[in-house]
Predict the 3D structure of the following.
Amino acid sequence: MPSSMVTVDGFPVAVDVAGPEKGSAVVVLGAAHHAPAAYDPVCQRLHTASLRTIVVGPDPRLTAKSVVGILDALDMKWALLVGDRVGGELAWELAATRLDRFTGLVVIDRGHPRVADLTGVIRDEHCPPVEMNTTALVSTPAARAVAKASQRYVYGDFRLVDLLGRRNAQESTAQLAAEIVLRTSNW
């Protein structure tokens, strides 16, 4: 996938945009230490389902405002939001505060900011509830407990899904892509 740099809030961010031009958009906020190319297998499946993908590389300077700035620079008005681990933290915040830009949320191994994470830390006790359909994918029993506790902060359809295969296995890729496609089709 072609990678480009988008400068937002004074710093460059790696962004991969691919898939059908007219397809519904999916924004992926990646896990720490995962280059955008790490999501190529999932994106290829999404392109087959006629979805356009925008994969934003991880950067500790990213904020909700800067992600919206990236979407503005790409002229993307609406998208389904996908957040993987650390990217999931930012995805929850965006979903809670920017109803005007996102149609649904898919998060992997992260709970709502008002729920204590795996280490017992509450990231944002004032984060609003998410008012959109949400899917939480989990890979461990501990992540499942955090996701289950997050359901009370979701005002919309909530799905809790156990990832079946090893995290990087083809089965997990297919399962993640299927959950994303499901969320894009029912908003």
Q: What stands out?
A: The chain has a mean pLDDT of 90.
